[in-house]
Amino acid sequence: MMKVMIPVDGSAAANRAVDYVIASVAWLKQAPQIHLLNVQWKLASGNVKLFIDQETINDYYREQGNAALADARAKLDNTGLAYAYHISIGIPAEAIVQYAKEQAVDQIVMSAHGQGSWSDLLLGSVASKVAHLAQVPVLLVK
After folding, report:
1. pLDDT of residue 115
2. How far apart are CA 1 and CA 83, in angstroms?
3. Which residues contact 129 (CB under 8 A, 6 or more apart)?
4. Of the candidates 44, 9, 28, 25, the residue with the CA atom closest to the CA atom of residue 83
5. Pairing assessment for the beta strands 33-40 and 138-141 based on DSSP bridges
6. Which residues of the chain have pLDDT under 70?
7. Contacts of 50 (CB under 8 A, 6+ apart)
8. Architecture of the 3-141 domain
9. What is the tens place of the pLDDT at every residue in 11-30?
10. Which H or E element spans position 73?
11. Beta-carbon neighbour count of residue 4 at 10 Å?
12. SS3 at position 114
């Protein structure tokens, strides 16, 4: 069974990748195993931990991650497709590639949003970093 990972950040652009995977299920003999991933940037460490305990920080990550995953999960729930979801903490491109490796996914389907702007050209977008670092095919959805 094909395993597809969709990194989502709660944006409309990211959710278009979910729509693409849902639409493509019709061409496949067997529905893929779908993994949704949200990556939360790691909060500053050091002094922050003097004022906020780790449990509060973990609750924050979970709350923000679940909010970012909500629309994508609703779309998949409406189709009846089975999926797993996960919230990672770290630098988005690296966390996406790491999770893809851990889950042995066959393909990463993600939004290409931001492609083409000067800042992305100079700094490199998450999508282009994932495409560069991933060991599996990366499908960018506009």
Report:
1. 44
2. 13
3. 93, 94
4. 25
5. unpaired
6. 44-49, 114-124
7. none
8. 3-Layer(aba) Sandwich (3.40)
9. 988 999 999 999 999 888 88
10. helix 54-79
11. 23
12. coil
Unique residue bearing structure tokens 């609750």? 59
Amino acid at 74: A
Strand ranges for the chain from DSSP E: 3-7, 33-40, 83-89, 107-111, 138-141
Q: Which residues contact 34 (CB under 8 A, 6 or more apart)?
A: 4, 5, 6, 21, 76, 81, 82, 83, 84
What are the boundaries of each domain within the chain? 3-141
Give me 69's structure tokens: 């995953």
Q: Report the candidate in 116, 71, 105, 110 with the shortest Cα–Cα distance to residue 93.
A: 110
